[in-house]
Design the sequence.
């Protein structure tokens, strides 16, 4: 299997080097996707390539549900996994745009409980959360917060306050925090991203779900994007792991990966970020804020980190995020210089999407030049 995947990678690179017409390139891209689906046994595969507001390539392959033989369609929603963090980061940055805090302010000034890193006096800031340098670790308490077939009955603020408060139910000095000083080391933190959701709630004086609905989803027309199962009206793509269907699930710390959406909605979100925070007249973020989001924040520590986004590749031009949970693998990104972007959503664990992702950018640039 690994040798076959390596062979496909080599062929993909060679195809990219060949001079071909736009329609031939889309055909080869489609063949590449179908081959990847076959090799990796991916039931459903959504791909959208765009430049700004314009869709250049959009296809939906395979089955949303194998047992029922349901073909994947454009309104079927996938679990976004960590791709959700870009939306969570944008929600916080919208409050920043309103002048309600500064990026280097201590977060404790804006929380109903305190977050202190044991053995250190350095205060955690908003920028540290957005760049994964907060020294907040993903402790084992998170593993007990998954719920199958229902939304988590545990409130986000309750879980988080009990995770960080020294007398809390989920407090664990050894496992909930890293030993290094905040701001000094990059270490990816899911729980730190969930904490952003609490900050949004406390600063905005409304629930995180309501804030994102009113300030991001509704103005962008992301009508099918939701954080909770109870709110979803469209069909959810069935997740699969090791060839077996997985029951739809949620987790208490949902701002770090619990969004369910589809490629068309995520296109609107990414196109907004690539256009200085504006999508069809809806100004979600200030241009200088989106520029900051897509800029290297901690060069001396890790030069790939922006504000809740990452440089994914292609000569350091593409900013975006990858996501992975049980039964889902996702990746989204945009080149802010030419506003070409790619969205790939699948319904298996640990899918290898990077080659197709980069291939999609080459396709987007070719189609853009052809037009």
Sequence:
């Amino acid at each position: 299997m690994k040798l076959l995947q390596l062979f496909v990678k080599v062929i993909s690179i060679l195809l990219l080097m060949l001079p071909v017409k736009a329609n031939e390139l889309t055909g080869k891209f489609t063949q590449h996707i179908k081959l990847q689906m076959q090799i990796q046994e991916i039931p459903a595969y959504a791909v959208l390539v765009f430049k700004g507001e314009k869709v250049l390539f959009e296809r939906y392959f395979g089955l949303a549900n194998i047992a029922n033989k349901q073909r994947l369609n454009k309104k079927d929603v996938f679990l976004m996994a960590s791709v959700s963090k870009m939306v969570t980061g944008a929600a916080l940055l919208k409050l920043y745009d309103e002048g309600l805090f500064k990026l280097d302010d201590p977060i404790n000034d804006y929380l109903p409980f305190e977050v202190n890193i044991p053995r250190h006096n350095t205060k955690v800031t908003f920028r540290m959360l957005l760049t994964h340098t907060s020294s907040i670790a993903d402790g084992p308490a998170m593993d007990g917060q998954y719920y199958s077939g229902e939304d988590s009955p545990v409130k986000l603020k309750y879980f988080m306050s009990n995770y960080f408060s020294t007398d809390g139910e989920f407090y664990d000095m050894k496992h909930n925090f890293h030993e290094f000083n905040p701001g000094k080391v990059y270490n990816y933190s899911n729980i730190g991203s969930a904490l952003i959701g609490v900050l949004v709630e406390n600063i905005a004086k409304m629930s995180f779900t309501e804030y994102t609905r009113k300030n991001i989803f509704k103005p962008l027309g992301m009508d099918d994007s939701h954080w909770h199962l109870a709110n979803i009206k469209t069909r959810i793509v069935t997740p699969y792991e090791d060839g077996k269907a997985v029951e739809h699930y949620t987790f208490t710390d949902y701002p770090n990966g619990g969004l369910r959406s589809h490629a068309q909605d995520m296109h609107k979100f990414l196109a907004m970020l690539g256009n200085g925070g504006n999508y069809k007249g809806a100004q979600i973020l200030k241009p200088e804020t989106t520029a900051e989001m897509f800029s290297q924040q901690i060069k001396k520590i890790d030069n790939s980190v922006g504000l809740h986004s990452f440089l994914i590749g292609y000569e350091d031009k593409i900013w975006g995020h990858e996501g992975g949970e049980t039964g889902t693998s996702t990746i989204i990104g945009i080149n802010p210089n030419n506003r070409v972007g790619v969205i790939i959503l699948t319904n298996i664990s640990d899918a290898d999407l990077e080659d197709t992702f980069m291939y999609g950018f080459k396709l987007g640039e070719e189609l853009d030049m052809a037009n």
In short: The mean pLDDT is 94. The domain at 19-370 is CATH 3.40.710.10 (Beta-lactamase). DSSP finds ten helices and 15 strands in the chain. The chain has one domain: 19-370.
